Structures are given as structure tokens and as C-alpha cells.
Amino acid sequence: MALNLEDKKAIVAEVNETAGNALSLVIADARGVNVTDMTELRAKAREQKIDLRVVRNTLAKRAFEGTDFECVSDVLTGPSLFGFSMEDPGAAARLFKEFAKTNDKFEIKALSVSGQLLDKAQVDVLANLPTLEQALGQLVSVMIAPVSKLVRTLNDVPSKVTRVVAAVRDQKQEAA
After folding, report:
1. Which pTM was predicted?
2. Which family is this sequence assigned to (predicted)?
């Protein structure tokens, strides 16, 4: 289906807005993946707040101008599926990595975070980033560790005093 100029401008504006709000971008080639699997991928993407798009490369290049994802224009060859992570930078990478395990024809081409183009081999780096909940949990555990150590130390003092008093009592009982 041919797109007229107004449709192309609307697509570029929409993708540009999405790219401006996204935290990371993962690009994949989905040629040969059946419709059922793609529908399943789209459903999982919606659950994880990942915006999936299939856009012509020429329109994508225009849409990425002025955004952090301008660096990916060199790798835009062939059909491209764009996964924009909107809340969690590693969400699209995790989703695409899991999907590629079960679909041999699905190939990750490249990824971009904070204006840096990363090779497809580095998808594990991005996929292994903790989610927001995991990161907050790690932060809380680091923050609470000194407090809990102090509480354990303060609780230890009375019990040590009690053990010393009990030992002195036992010694005096034995001596008597």
C-alpha cells in the first residue's frame, strides 16, 4: 500500500515522539517469523510497556533525527522491527532475547542506549540490567545494611553482659 506525503509525515512525527520518550531501542529482523508468534510478541511487549513498530528505514532515519537514536541510521538495512523501551531500559532487550531463543529466524541487529550504538553481541549487557523494582530492592538493602548491623551490635552488648554475669555466678557457685 502506497503512503502519501501526509501519511509519511504523520508516521515520522509519531515515531519521533516515541523515540524522544524511549529509554532504549532494540532493532531486529523478523523475516520468516509466523504471524502467531509475532502476535504473541506484540502482546508481551504491550504488557511490558514496550512500543513495537515496523517502519520503513527511510522514514525511521528521518524520525530518529534529533533524538538519542540517530546513531542507528547506519544499521538500518533490510526489514526492521523497532522495540522502544519506555520505562525499563532493558525490557526490549530481554523480550527480544527470549523471543530469539524460540524463533531461529528472529535476529537482533543492533541496540542503542543514551545515544550509543551497541553491537547485537552486547544484547546480554542490556538484558541483564535490573528492572526498576530490582534496582530499588538492591538500593534499599544497601541502605538498610548499616542500620541492621548497628541493631545487631547493640543487641549483642546486653547478651554478652548477661553471659559474663552468668559465668561469674557459675564460678562463684563452683567456688562455694
Report:
1. 0.69
2. Belongs to the universal ribosomal protein uL10 family.
